[in-house]
Amino acid sequence: MLMDDVIKALPSFLWTDGTQWTGLAVTAKLFLYAGAIGMSLAVVLALLKVYGPKPVGWAIGTFSYFFRGTPLFLQLMLIYYGLSQFDIVSNGWQDGNAFWLLFRDAGFCAVLAYVLNTAAYALEILAGAFAQYPKEEIAAAEAYGMSRWTTIRRIVLPGALRRVIPVFSNEMVFLLHATALSSTVTLMDMTGVARTLYADTYSPFFPFLMAAALYLVCTFALLGLFRGAERRWLAFLRPRQS
Amino acid sequence: MVSSYLPLILGGALLSLRVALASLALALLFGLTNASIKLFGPSWLRAVSVTYTTVIRGIPELVMMLLLFFGGEKLFNLVLTALDLPTVEFNKFVAGVLTIGFIYGAYFTETFRSAFLAVPKGQLEAGVAYGMTPWRVFRSILFPQMLRYALPGINNNWLALLKSAALVSLIGLEDMAWLAEQAGRATQKPFLFYFVVCLIYLAITATSGGAMRWLGRRYSY
User: Are A208 and B55 within 8 A, CB to CB?
Assistant: First the structure.
């Protein structure tokens, strides 16, 4: 590959190939949507699993067991290619049903798969943090006359969310890496750009090395952000500096 | 129609398992060697190990797989051409196993490294005080105890590896996921076949979870 081709390919790796958003822009979008929605879902499901009625807890446990026990790649295939098998979905597509048409959109399906997968892992971590929350803090809240829900809202939730930051940094790196699968459902994320470039030029080194380098940079940036978050929000757990 | 594909999928399950188990063996080997280098090796070799684990864990498996599979074949053939030898096509099974083993070796390195560090130092000193050679200390004291600390991490990595191995269908290996795609297309029932494959994966993860609990009991004392 010539230097010219490399320079020409750079914009498509970062933001656009001239006609649509591609590369890093698409990866970032998928990651941010999936991360934000997945984490919010995880918080709700974890609360329901720990404090909700038993049958709800079992249902959430089954959901999490399925999504943690099967490959994300297959979950994505199940959602994007699999759902067309059902008449209700294919009829919905023919009738122009707005809800079912969403499942024809590769971006929507990818985000949905990542959301469910991330939520399945994160909710277990959070549920663990809720269940093992320091008893003293809860007792103190009770002594102040807080109700159960107030205690959860004011003490357990913020405290547990802070304590899981180090574990969540790993989960977020996994999510970033998971978005590389988007190229299997026709999306032009960084991996998609690399695979297209490889298919066009038949030269594997530049496309995949470039994608690898970009992912490496993103991973380190993400880890740096989380280290900052730990310094800021976990300061209260550090030994006191004299 | 549908039932005729099920034996095929089960055959694919065997291939998926073979890929995963062969990769596991390789990854354990890589991990153990690397962890030993990281802890006991000379500093230049240690730098290589640190780079390997950091870089591999910062890149998605799919990208790594495509780079090593397509790039590796091309590089190998460039060398062959330069030597005036005929070019070859990589065996997909071997290439897939090498790639996944190489990637997960980095994860196993960290597992083994922290497990080595968890063995109390006093026991190693006691071994030396008994007149054991360094190799003997490693074999009789450090290694068996390290294994106990490493087991939970090994289980987690193995499950992640098993699930990543589903990606080999993307480089054209005819594993479960690949067969599910074909069968789904032929019968117009893609959900059914992907779901069956998911259930097979669940069965494998559940079984290995049980096996790990048994191993955990066996090695804890």
Answer: no
